[in-house]
Amino acid sequence: MVIEDSIRFCVFESLNTTMVDEGGNNTVRVANFLKPCAKNTGEATRFPTVSSPPRNGEEVHPAVQFKGWKNPQRKWNDWIEIMAGKYGFMWNQTGICDAILSSMYKIQCNQSLILGIVEYWCIETNTFVFPWGEATITLEDVMVLGGFSVLGEPVNLPLTGDMVAMEAEMLRLSREMDGGKSRRDQRTWMKFFMEEGQSHDLEHVGFLSLWLSRFVFPSLPYEVIATRVFPIAIRLARGTKLALAPAVLAGIYESLRLLKQQVTSSLGESVKALGLFQLVQLWANERFSIFGSNCPIELKPGEPRAARWHGVISNANGCPISSALKFARSFQWRPYAADLKNWCFVSPYKDNEQFVHVASNSNDELKSFGQCLFANELVGLGGCIEKYMPYRVAMQFGFDQHLPGDFAVMNSNCRENFMFYVPSRAYKPCVSLEYLNWWRASKVNQEKQEGEINGMRLNLKDDEPSQIDRIKNVVGDFAGLLSDEKGRVKLAKGTLCNPLDVEAYACSIVGTLSHPIDVDKYWCIYERNRMVSQVGIVCFYFSEHK
């Protein structure tokens, strides 16, 4: 396709290269990759590292109090119905209608699931580094599951004109509540505006301030109206469309980083987490089919997507969470491309692929999708700035995955005039052969380094049964780096039907627990805190008994 000279930037790159599908089949074809992508493994960014928490066994996590996890208060839904009758049209115009309606539903917390995926969180890349690949919560997820807009003005712009006086009045009301017997806690705030302030000029601002404090930007102290949201509430009440999604996602990334750091160093102590973890739960429910394949509620016409998880308790149908997360086939790369009954969201994914020039296209749905593809620095509230790297998880947008390049923020001018690609709804993305080799080699090297640091030596005797025997007779494939007695190293592959003979090697083996290796003759060094009976990518180091 010919791209006009006036287009300043193309967010994707097309290359003719070898692609590998989920079945391991190679095909040489033209693939579309998100920028920035590297030309070769030498230029690829450093492989992300993930620190594991010190645990004594599988499925053991510290107790966590999710302080920012707020369900609707009594009468909250009634207040929404009252305000929707007055301001529903404005909510649609400013892109917050679905976000407000989503706050009506109770999302159940599966603490083990959240902590299970947090173990894989990489604070360097803001991605989950699973054994089978990277994934993350993207702007598209925040837009679809939370109902927040990616289009509009930044949330941190200062107020001007008579809006400054409106903020002063809101601060005065806040101080009055603090100074009297009552406080400006959220319950008192709602009671004031529902019962005493329905005719108040700032009724709408008061409503939005509570919604923002409780369901969008939760902060310390708990259960109070945060004065920092007043400027946002005022601008929304004036009909200004704001890009809430980037600020919300920045807060989620920050919360995941803080929780990961706390869990890693907790040593079993209780942890307090603040942030919008309802969206993390929704993301896990949507992306990992094993946790919600038979759970979602059928949407009613006009309901936001979050409604399908109202009151639903996610589970893994008896499968341990840590094991389920290691199955690549359980992850849904493109859940929003599929048809969903009664879902009124206008999807950018169509039956045919599309090439879109933003400067000449007025479709907000396509513009929104295009904004989700840009690498950027997300600016949240309170000075929070987080890196957003969609090119590392390109398959979540239906793009093929290539070697990730170095992070770089695109020039703001590019956002007004750029070209992007929308794959068809039925397209199944693949990875380039270069990416697959880079991932495998990097995992082998990382696991080897971690094993040398954290490893312990087990003596396997014939008269002592071992959990390691469980790796036998499990169907699947594996890949390993093998070193013979002369020190020559090569990548070898094996299957259950064609097992690899390891007796001549001292070897490190990486793969699914798939091949019937006879380990009775060997010492096995394995990573501390990792159960050898788990399913997924694991690493073993063998040496002969001599």
Structure, described:
By secondary structure, the protein is α+β, with helices and mostly antiparallel strands. Strands 14-18-19-17-15-16 form a six-stranded antiparallel β-sheet, covered by helices on one side. 29% of the residues lie in helices and 17% in strands. Strand 2 and strand 3 form a beta hairpin. The radius of gyration is 26 Å and the shape is globular.
From the structure above, extract its key features.
546 residues, alpha+beta, six-stranded antiparallel beta sheet, three-stranded mixed beta sheet, 13 helices, globular, disordered C terminus
What's the layout of helices and strands?
Elements: E1 9-10, E2 12-20, E3 26-34, E4 64-66, H1 76-94, H2 97-102, H3 111-118, E5 121-122, E6 127-130, E7 133-135, H4 139-146, H5 162-179, H6 186-196, H7 203-216, H8 230-237, H9 244-264, E8 271-273, H10 277-287, H11 321-324, E9 354-357, H12 364-371, E10 376-379, E11 385-388, E12 418-422, E13 431-432, H13 433-454, E14 455-459, E15 477-483, E16 489-495, E17 506-511, E18 522-527, E19 538-544
Parallel strand pairs: 1-12, 4-8
Antiparallel strand pairs: 2-3, 2-13, 5-6, 6-7, 9-12, 10-11, 14-18, 15-16, 15-17, 17-19, 18-19
